[in-house]
Design brief:
single chain, mainly beta, 74% strand, globular
Length: 164
């Protein structure tokens, strides 16, 4: 099980478990506990399928949280390597939520450049992402160093994550 501490407006404990069906398909379960309220923030279950020859992933699942109750998720991501070693990529990704009546809610789509630097220093990998969220029309960035991740966008939203 993967766990992380996440902070934006409050500290949350996040846990994720992946259960493989075969080499390309797995069930991903994850949830979050808000330490400020002491209650769960959300729980999600998604079946994800990878198409490694096309550098593509698709997922379908359910998400439950206090505000929006039960929703369905559909998500996808396509990666386009810009170098032969695949350390620099252009990614296109999207997600769409549906409520219980199958009305579309909260579409998310983004185009981003990602640059992975392996062994930036000894035992230190770094990733930089710069992208544009299409539906909210906001640029964003991510800096990841081994266990630490900082996400920020041009509207002033940010969060920090530490993988345990």
């Amino acid at each position: 099980m993967e766990t992380s501490l996440r902070y934006s407006k409050s500290l949350r404990i996040h846990a994720k478990e992946t259960l493989p069906f075969n080499s390309k398909t797995h069930l991903q379960l994850h949830g979050e506990l808000d330490t400020g309220t002491g209650s769960p923030s959300y729980f999600s279950a998604m079946i994800r399928h990878l198409f490694p020859e096309a550098l593509t992933g698709l997922g379908v699942g359910f998400h439950y949280d206090k505000r929006h109750k039960l929703r369905c998720h559909v998500r996808g991501k396509q990666e386009f390597p810009l170098r032969t070693d695949s350390l620099v990529t252009f990614n296109v990704k999207g997600r769409c939520d549906f409520d219980q009546d199958f009305n579309q809610k909260n579409p998310v789509g983004a185009a981003e450049f990602a640059w992975n630097i392996m062994d930036f220093k000894e035992d230190q990998d770094v990733r930089f992402k710069v992208g544009y969220e299409l539906f909210n029309r906001v640029p964003y960035m991510q800096i990841r160093e081994n266990n630490w991740t900082l996400n920020a966008n041009m509207k002033g939203k940010w969060n920090l994550r530490f993988d345990l």
